[in-house]
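Researcher: Re-running this chain for the archive, since the previous output was lost when a drive failed. Same request as before.
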Amino acid sequence: MLTAVLSLTGAFVFGAADFLGGLAAKRIGAVLATAVAALAGFVGLAVATPLSGGEWTAADLWWGAAAGVVGAVAIGLLYACLAIGPMSILSPLTAVVSAIVPMLWDLATGAQLGALAPWALGLALVAVVLVGFVPERGAVRPSLAGIVMGIGSGTAIGGFFILIDQTSDESGLAPLAVNSAVTAVVMFAVVGGLALRARAKRSRMPRPDESPDAAPAPRDRARGIRLAAVGGFVNAAANALILFGIRAGELAVAAVLGAMYPAGTILLAAIVLKERIAPVQWVGLVLALASAAMLAVA
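Model: Regenerated structure tokens:
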């Protein structure tokens, strides 16, 4: 039961982090927003790690670092496939794959689930699809590149769960702190690379008619950085909840419930931005809660 509660709570917190990250990305770009969020998450986890206690080994830190690299790949592929679209198809595809990969890994490595658990996991996967699906007018079929990157992103997210599960229960939050540090380094390296590429392109093809308003205003940029930083702290809290959920029970259960993160984003968008929640999404939210209750019993 503790795994279900922690993982589902972590999923909704993840949704809040994604909501904040989305607002930040509109102002400063997705790559920079992700880098700032990762740095803020590292700062929060670096402060919380000594307070949480625990004793970690070099192996725990290496697993955390590996998870950070895989996490950076997952984020990059996620933003790339969502940029291609359509989001209403690729977003739930990514979430479903991210849930299936750890579940298959758990079952392949000999995990034993209760008789009710397979039905609950199946119901949870249906809920993930329904929650993430947003009917759009004139929606187009996803391209092969979008599907491949969506599957790749989901696989990498699932790989993150598997890698972080290799850390010892006694290691506390230390692996997550290393994970955030590595992700921040990778993402800021990408930001630097993109900046150098843009500068070189401008030097080769100067455009005097280019509007100076193309860059975000300083006020918008500062607000975007603040939103990304807050989102990073929230994301770190979500990671901690998911990690504790994994350690409290089965990886498969924690991963499937953790894939409910679109629910938190959708609810916040409805409350803050007054966006409409489609009936199919309400069905998905109800099924998500039902599957969590089934898993708690199982």
